[in-house]
């Protein structure tokens, strides 16, 4: 569980000149600082290849905070804790220099030997850095040592195992914080609370009352500058293996006996173990892949994926995935969990729709519609909140029903700025709470699930790519996946809180 005390710690960011550090890590650290969550006993060492000075890093941190937040009170005080060391991740000399600086700052800021190593770098360096941290003595410290690792954690189960073996030589499982930034999102964290703190939902949260669950995570952006990475990954590895499956686990897990890291993780692991493996010929029945063609977004023409910079003109990489997952246990037998995620879709939205079963018979006369099913919609981003779709009596003489919606908007209730996921995750890591990070067992089981699908896809070229136009909700086959079962994707824009 999270310690309430403000920790003292040295935070070492590998890749401090990169995009993630600039857009997410520096602003998040600043927020924590302003909220008093960092205290005064902290220091940050940024490392990367560029020969920056301490001053140059400080200027960049200031700039990133200003760009992201628009204001920067106490910024000079904040950046006075930042130091820079040019570094080559493969070079032992570099680590020895880094250790000297770390030991000096440890003394200067009374950090008690506490160290967080944040690897905000390309994944091929993760193993090398972890090994050097051990062999060159940086993690030989009397305080806590924690390794924060960005995604992707491997490319498949085999590579993930190799990476895990490398980092485990230097850190115990409890010291490894594998980032899945979806787990830091306010409404993803809210899934457990909605389920386990409301008498209303948990008794209905099973195959007797729920007909299906739909999770959509759609982006409007295309591949942007990430083509080199994305070409080797695709939507299945980039989104499904981690974020989508993590949301499934939180929706499907049994109530933990207490809210401890181990108990929650072990319930999530049981969900992954109950996931029906989809392999061989079954893949085409359960999974659909797509790749965007050209189209229009906000009235502007956008190119097809195959015409994007650094993309193979004959690329077989999927930019869209839809799938039907079955969880073969008592609670969920027979309830499909539909997931879909993709780039260049109609709207940017992450939403979960829990569709309840129809009531046994309709007693009410409705001129224009059947009785609508009850829905619970969890808005993850950009809107944050929940909506409950019910039926009520239409005003007037007749006993006619009309759909009504009860909304809770997290953003309007708690102020416009719910903390950014990275802020929460950094805060958790500083306080030693690994609940919202992926345990190795979860990573291994989810790769095992995804590998069986990618094997089939890699061996069979999709001849119909591109198969959806930019600005749409994916290929037709994605709609047919639900139609076969008598369902349809609830249109995500109609479900927006603003439309209610
Ligand atoms: P980036 O390319 O912008 O930055 C990479 C950093 O690594 C730079 O600071 C660079 O100087 C440093 N570097 C590269 N080679 C080096 C070497 N040999 N020695 C020392 N330093 C070296 O990458 P990024 O977008 O910041 O992403 C970093 C990690 O975070 C990746 O694993 C990525 O998948 C993950 N990630 C990024 C984002 C994002 O929004 N940018 C989101 C989720 C996950």
Descriptive report:
Residues 193-490 form the Glucose-6-phosphate dehydrogenase C-terminal domain. Residues 12-190 form the Glucose-6-phosphate dehydrogenase NAD-binding domain. Its EC number is 1.1.1.49. With 500 residues, the chain is α/β, with parallel strands linked by helices. The protein has two domains: 9-150, Rossmann fold; 183-484, Dihydrodipicolinate Reductase, domain 2. It contains 14 helices and 17 strands. The protein has an eight-stranded mixed beta sheet, sandwiched between helices. A six-stranded parallel beta sheet has the order 3-2-1-4-5-6. Strand 9 (292-297) and strand 10 (300-302) form a beta hairpin. Helix 5 runs parallel beside helix 6 and helix 8 packs across helix 9 (261-274). The radius of gyration is 24 Å and the shape is globular. It starts with 8 loop residues before the first strand and ends in a 17-residue tail after the last helix. The model has no long low-confidence stretch (mean pLDDT 94). It binds nicotinamide-adenine-dinucleotide. The site of nicotinamide-adenine-dinucleotide (NAD) has 19 residues, from helix 1.
């Amino acid at each position: 569980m999270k310690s309430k005390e403000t920790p003292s710690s040295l935070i070492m960011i590998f890749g401090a000149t990169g995009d993630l550090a600039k857009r997410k890590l520096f602003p998040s650290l600043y927020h924590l600082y302003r909220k008093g969550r960092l205290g005064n006993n902290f220091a940050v060492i940024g490392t990367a290849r560029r020969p920056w000075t301490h001053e140059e890093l400080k200027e960049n941190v200031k700039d990133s905070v200003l760009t992201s937040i628009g204001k920067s009170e106490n910024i000079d005080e904040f950046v006075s804790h930042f130091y820079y060391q040019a570094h080559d991740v493969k070079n032992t000399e570099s680590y020895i220099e880094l250790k000297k600086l770390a030991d000096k700052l440890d003394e200067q800021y009374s950090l008690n030997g506490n160290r967080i190593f944040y690897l905000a770098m390309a994944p091929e360096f993760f193993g090398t850095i972890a090994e050097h941290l051990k062999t060159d003595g940086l993690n030989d410290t009397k305080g806590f040592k924690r390794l924060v690792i960005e995604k992707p954690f491997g490319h498949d189960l085999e590579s993930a195992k190799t990476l895990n073996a490398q980092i485990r030589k230097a850190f115990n499982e409890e010291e490894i914080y594998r980032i899945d930034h979806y787990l830091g999102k306010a409404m993803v964290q809210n899934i457990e609370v909605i389920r386990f703190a409301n008498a209303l939902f948990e008794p209905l949260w099973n195959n007797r009352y729920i007909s299906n669950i739909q999770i959509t995570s759609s982006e409007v952006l295309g591949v942007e500058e990430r083509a080199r990475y994305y070409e080797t990954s695709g939507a299945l590895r980039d989104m499904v293996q981690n974020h989508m499956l993590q949301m499934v686990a939180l929706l499907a897990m049994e109530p933990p006996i207490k809210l401890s890291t181990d108990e929650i993780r072990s319930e999530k692991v049981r969900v992954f173990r109950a996931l029906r493996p989809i392999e061989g010929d079954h893949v085409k029945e359960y999974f659909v892949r797509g790749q965007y063609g050209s189209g229009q977004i906000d009235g502007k023409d956008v190119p097809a994926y195959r015409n994007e910079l650094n993309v193979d003109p004959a690329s077989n990489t999927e930019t869209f995935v839809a799938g039907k997952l079955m969880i073969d246990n008592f609670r969920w037998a027979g309830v499909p969990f539909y997931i879909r995620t993709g780039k260049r879709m109609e709207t940017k939205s992450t939403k979960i729709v829990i569709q309840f079963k129809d009531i046994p018979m309709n007693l009410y006369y409705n001129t224009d519609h059947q009785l609508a099913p009850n829905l619970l919609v969890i808005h993850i981003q950009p809107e944050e909140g929940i909506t409950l779709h019910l039926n009520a009596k239409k005003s007037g003489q007749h006993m006619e029903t009309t759909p009504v919606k009860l909304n809770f908007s997290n953003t309007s209730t708690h102020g416009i700025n719910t903390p950014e996921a990275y802020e929460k995750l950094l805060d958790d890591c500083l306080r030693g709470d690994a609940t919202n990070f992926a345990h190795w067992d979860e990573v291994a089981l989810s790769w095992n699930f995804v590998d069986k699908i990618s094997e089939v896809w890699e061996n069979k070229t999709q001849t119909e790519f591109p198969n959806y136009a930019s600005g749409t909700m994916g290929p037709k086959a994605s709609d047919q996946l639900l139609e076969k079962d008598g369902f349809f994707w609830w249109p995500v824009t109609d479900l927006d809180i603003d439309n209610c």
